[in-house]
Description:
The complex is a heterodimer.
Chain A: E1 5-9, E2 19-25, E3 31-38, H1 44-47, H2 56-60, H3 68-82, H4 90-122, H5 133-139, H6 141-162, E4 171-172, E5 175-176, H7 182-212, H8 214-219, E6 226-231, E7 244-248, E8 254-259, H9 264-267, E9 268-271, E10 280-283, H10 287-290, E11 293-294, H11 297-303, H12 310-322, H13 333-353, E12 372-379, E13 382-390, E14 396-402, H14 404-407, H15 409-424, H16 432-444, H17 449-452, E15 462-466, E16 472-477
Parallel strand pairs in A: 6-11
Antiparallel strand pairs in A: 1-2, 2-3, 4-5, 6-7, 7-8, 9-10, 12-13, 13-14, 15-16
Chain B: E1 7-13, H1 19-25, H2 30-34, E2 38-40, E3 55-61, E4 64-66, H3 67-79, E5 80-86, H4 87-92, H5 108-119, E6 123-124, E7 139-144, E8 154-156, H6 163-174
Parallel strand pairs in B: 1-2, 1-3, 3-5, 5-8
Antiparallel strand pairs in B: 4-7
Iron/sulfur cluster sits at the interface of chains B and A.
Amino acid sequence: MSEPRLIEISPVTRVEGHGKVTIHLDAEGQVDEARLHIVEFRGFERFIQGRLLWEVPVIVQRLCGICPVSHHLAAAKAMDAIVGVDELPPTAEKMRRLMHYGQVMQSHVLHFFHLASPDLLFGFGAPAERRNIFEVLREKPELGRRAILMRKFGQDIIEATAGKKIHGTGAVPGGINRNLPIETRDAFLAVIDDMAAWANDALALARDYTVENRDAVQRFAAFPSHYLSLVRPGDGALDLYDGNLRARGSDGSDIFDQLDCTRYHEVLLEDVRAWSYMKFPYIRSLGPEAGWYRVGPLARMMTASVIDTPRAEAARQELLASNDGQTQHAILANHWARMIEVVHCIEKIRDLLHDPNLQGTDLVAKGERRQSGIGVIEAPRGNLIHHYEVDENDQVTYCNLIVSTTHNNEGMNRAVKDVAVRALSGQPEITEGMLNEVEVAIRAYDPCLSCATHALGQMPLQVELIGPDGAVLDCRTKDP
Amino acid sequence: MSEIRKARVATASLAGCFGCHMAILDMDERLIDLMSKVEIDRSPLTDFKTFTRRCDIGIIEGGCCNEENVHVLREFRRNCDVLIALGQCAIMGGLPAMRNAIMHSDAPLRECLEEAFITGRYIENKTHNIPNDPALPLLLDEVYPCSAVVEIDYNIPGCAPSGEVIHDTLIALLAGRFQGFERERIRFD
Ligand code: SF4
């Protein structure tokens, strides 16, 4: 161990999108630096300029195939503001909510079972060939089958409200383009009890894991941070679809509260650092060093005053009590929080399905045209901000997106470093299982690296692309 | 063991949104059955980061936007008997290729990078540099469809293609009786 070494984990697997980790070890084998990189770049904010406003909700979701509905709805909400609609017809608002709860549910189930569960079921250091959903299906067929059917339920809700499971078209500026037929509603109601029961079992699984491994959980990449999310106006309840911004400090006190979303840029700023590639948002008043924060299911449990559905609220109380009423900073508790939200979504879906408004026919509202619109939503992975400006020809002239995974950038990089230092520093031999531990820390954030891709990148130096026939298709050199 | 060898399938996500991989999971219960016929090798859904052996079928989501995409795509061509481009991004570049042609722009990629890192309104960039690090793969000036880089055997259209179409195509290919798609199954959204 006399030479400094560079270890790469590439690609990070069982997460959504494209990322890699680099770990620099010094000559003594101590971790010097450890970082998570996102290796692609889209440039969405620029190339969406010139497109027509009604196209945006349909185009923008193609940033992300795991949570397309979140982008679809955040963009639609921004476009509502631009077409001058502050209040949607009840049918439109409820159809969109149904779509969103279906989406959050399927995304959380997908993350917990399809991507993360092998680590929890088989152990962080289990052989690589066991750590995947297909092995879960083989070794725990009943659990695997439920995972598939729960995700399918969420996807079917999306299809019923958006027209397609992936990249639908349901939301339009000012409303929605369909309602829910009675037969479709009845088909969902026929299985909702199963879903509720299975969600409870999944919740118990995540809770027991956190409680039984309490010491390990409290040590694993656990550090205090501030938290940010939307909360419902008035009572500050959890609201995944709409509300005002609330930021809570690591000690549980409010940094700001009930702030109108259109003022997001007064309180948040994004830092670009020479040594990093993803922007680092922070709370303006606290500055870049102290102002970083986290978003997502655990953050929402910490910011919300209450959850307005009984089972999920009881589960949230249990989560809060598990840490003696202190703010829960352990990132592995994110899995528990995620399952609480699955329970919440199913309670919400059940209520909505019983609401006759879903069969209403007043679908789109109109209003007085405005120039700009800001749409904010709680995506499965946390707060998501879309901001657009549109000219008199309906063409987009400005776009700014802050996606959940970018909010979590600082937290994820700290988690990577924390685990790398603990698991790798001074080890005579670095095993594959140790490296998986680093990935477990990233996975706990359920990052959506596709979403984050829209605003990352670097300047190219020189690249030559040669086609299948050997011809040079493209050669590019870095500008001085 | 004398049971028939399972077909080996590998998948990769290049410049795509992961939606095509979600569509693979949209096979739902049919996945359970499919797993009796195939095993998954290198894939973002498993922890195999490289090929463990030669595969019968490789499935590619996304086109090529950087050198690493090109590298992975070539590895797939070398290691798979049959290579499938899944979805519009792999077939034609898709949404990421919107950056190839920005109206009235001579340097679309540069404009995209500047908007993201320098000229954006609510960012703090003291150095006025676009971040640059050897850990990041070099970007290509345009986003390319897979067929511009390697030979592709089959295209499954859609954005994303449905789980059903993916399932039926795989089953037909494995049985050696794939005849192309019926007209109503050829979709571009
Ligand atoms: S084809 Fe569509 S679903 Fe597939 S990766 Fe591209 S944008 Fe995503």
